[in-house]
Amino acid sequence: xxxxxxxxxxxxxxxxSKIDSVDFNNLDFGKVFTxxxxxxxxxxxxxxxxxxxxxxxLTIDPSARVFHYGQAVFEGMKAFKDQENQVWLFRPEDxxxxxxxxxxxxxxxxxxxELFFEGLKALLKVDDEWIKNTEGSSMYIRxxxxxxxxxxxxxxxxxxxxxxxxxPAQSYYAGEVRVKIAEKYSxxxxxxxxxxxxxxNYAAQFYPTALANQEGYQQIIWTDASxxxxxxxxxxxxxxxxxxxxxxxxxxxxxxLDGITRKSVIQLAxxxxxxxxxxxxxxxxLIEAAKNGSLKEIFGSGTAAVxxxxxxxxxKDFKHELPKLxxxxxxxxxxxxxxxxxxxxxxxxxxxxxx
Length: 355
Ligand SMILES: Cc1ncc(COP(=O)(O)O)c(C=O)c1O
Fold this sequence. Notes:
Oligomer: single chain
Number of strands: 20
Bound molecules: pyridoxal-5'-phosphate
Number of helices: 7
């Protein structure tokens, strides 16, 4: 056991490493986990001594609130290793801020900043060998909080578990993505939890997305729940439209996740003299732009894929394929973001965080 400078932390190392059994050239996204995990319990009104411990199953009482009322929130972030083997995070304070916003909305306790950074750094350090610096490799980081108190009364739990698990990732390719614009189902409603990374938001997307898959569309662009007229976000990404040379994206609201990649793209657009408009976009305007040829690109932004080009869309009976361009905003932003993340470009906005 070791202690960190500020907080006591138990570090229990795994006896054997699984690393030799992993084929790092053929990783299925999110299916392989490292040797260790971070865990910290909330009990008696406070966070207890955290642990870095061998990765493995949990023992949780079947009456825990997470199983019954869905008190569960999570984050998605990445660590990158540069050519000098230094590990970097990308805007991690924003992930911590967001998991605490999500937790508050679900009546769960916030997690302290120092504990988060000390725990995450300690975990990345014990599993450093798992973070590869080969092209496109990264470590996907999944912090999450679940309600563990054993009692099924429908009220917020008094006990929680904050955990971080790590999954090595290769450059993420979601395959060809065509999207269906939602006209019946919604992912989030006014005054609801759409802005939170609440587990239930994702469960609610699975069924309509499966129906879209059956029609040959990989994802859904969600529209506002009351009119289905305004474009909001795409699957698990924020969405951008390039109309002529202007980049357009919807403003965040309580139905949309405030994506860290989204706000980075908006900043990079400004840095590169690309006109960016954060405004509500009507489905009708998109269809009009598709018909008159001014719609050049659609892409999603999110931690896993960074930027994911969308090749086509469908709305009711209208189907459209995007033009194939030699130079796209999608690849410009992906390259610029990757260069900052892997420490090969300057970082004028201080987004990189040294581990
Ligand atoms: C619903 C939803 N929208 C948008 C995003 C993109 O957010 P970020 O760029 O912070 O990863 C995510 C997560 O990745 C998401 O789950």
